[in-house]
Design goal:
By secondary structure, this protein is mainly alpha-helical. Helices cover 73% and strands 0% of the residues. α1 runs parallel beside α16 and α16 packs antiparallel against α17. The chain is globular.
């Protein structure tokens, strides 16, 4: 049985990536007029970030179901887990390393410019590089490591940490999830743990924040794999539900799929624009809404039948979706390090902000296109530094 590729997910990746890219235009916030509009309605990447963890789990589980019958499954060895994790980041790892190298150079230039190129600076950068090279920085829960050089790489790191244990998670789920009821029970457990960990990891962040001479443990809730693993598990269980529906010959007509995709997309769009306006007194409920909408999004679009799916399956959207991770990794260092020139030589105005956005997007898409079209040769060129 061949693994079914869900093309809607590929197209959605590009849309969600662009939501994240736009949310990193924080330099717009101080501007009069449009700045407040941007802050309230556009500076919101949470739903898009959450989305990416779910199809990752969905794809891994669907691939396992397609390749291996449950009676043939064996408990994975440590070597199996390591190979599985490496396999899933091997293609993107060379570009990841290039962005880290670019960040190190930019930090060094900035230190020289500020006359801060000292032994302590060099030692600090060496430690950060050592933690970042194996893509394990998110496990520290420390922004000192997680946001070093290329702030968005926490996502790749969190996924890699989860990939390393995914064979075990897949084995357990396939052995114990025997019915729709079991799948729903697992989903309820994940929801509880996501909310509970948001609270307890937040407490840990408070306790270990501001300890002298030690980097703050301040990124456990958002940027670590300890809570994000349950988003991936949610995606895995959605894949088992999807498979059961397919095996039971439960299909959705194109007409129903059209309605469901349009209604859900409208709800998500409305929620996206109003999310920042919702009260933060009990912020955990936002996590529940995010997760619920993401899960509905994954399950409905997994059927690949509606009018929006048809648009997402167009060759151009598929190509952009396949380029999405390159867009994700390259846009942020361009935005962070080149903003220094705008700040230093021009200052932030409506005109310079617009020109800088054009510059970021142009550079990002050119580089992403080059990386995408040279994946194989790029991997070979940096073979000496890729994870073995």
């Amino acid at each position: 049985m061949e693994t079914q590729k869900i093309k809607s997910f590929t197209g959605l990746r590009f849309i969600m990536i662009m939501v994240i890219v736009v949310s990193h235009f924080e330099f717009l916030e101080p501007l009069n007029g449009f700045g407040s509009f941007y802050t309230i309605y556009l500076h919101n990447a949470t739903f898009a970030v959450d989305f990416f963890f779910l199809p990752s789990g969905f794809g891994m589980m669907l691939g396992s179901i397609s390749r291996t019958r449950i009676e043939e499954m064996k408990f994975p060895k440590i070597s199996d887990c390591l190979a599985y994790g490496i396999k899933h980041i091997r293609k993107i790892y060379p570009v990841y390393i290039l962005t880290i190298f670019f960040g190190v150079c930019a930090e060094a230039v900035d230190a020289i410019y500020k006359s801060n190129f000292t032994f302590n600076f060099i030692l600090r950068e060496i430690v950060k590089v050592i933690v970042n090279i194996p893509v394990l920085q998110s496990a520290t829960g420390m922004s000192f490591f997680i946001l070093a050089y290329n702030g968005v790489t926490w996502f790749l790191s969190a996924l890699f940490c989860i990939y390393l244990i995914s064979p075990i998670l897949i084995f357990i789920l396939r052995k114990f999830s025997k019915s729709y009821f079991g799948d729903l029970l697992f989903l309820l457990i994940y929801v509880f743990l996501i909310v509970a960990l948001s609270y307890f990891l937040g407490k840990i962040e408070t306790i270990f924040h501001g300890i002298k001479h030690i980097p703050n443990v301040d990124n456990l809730v958002y940027g670590s794999p300890y809570r994000r693993v349950f988003y991936v598990l949610t995606g895995m269980n959605l894949a088992t539900i999807f498979t059961r529906l397919k095996n039971d010959n439960i299909k959705i007509s194109k007409k129903i799929a059209n309605v469901m995709e349009i209604v859900l997309s409208s709800l998500v769009l409305a929620y996206f624009f109003m999310r920042n306006s919702l009260p933060n007194t009990q912020f955990y409920y936002k996590y529940l809404i995010d997760l619920f909408l993401c899960a509905c999004f994954i399950l409905i679009f997994s059927f690949d039948e509606g009018c929006i799916s048809n648009y997402l399956k167009k060759p151009m959207m598929q190509k952009l979706g396949n380029m999405a991770m390159y867009i994700f990794l390259t846009h942020y260092p361009i935005r962070i390090y080149f903003s220094w020139f705008v700040d230093k030589f021009f200052g932030w105005t409506e005109l310079t902000s617009i020109l800088f956005i054009i510059f970021i997007l142009a550079m990002t898409f050119v580089l992403s296109f080059l990386f995408y079209n040279n994946e194989k040769s790029l991997t070979e060129k940096v073979k000496g530094i890729t994870i073995k």
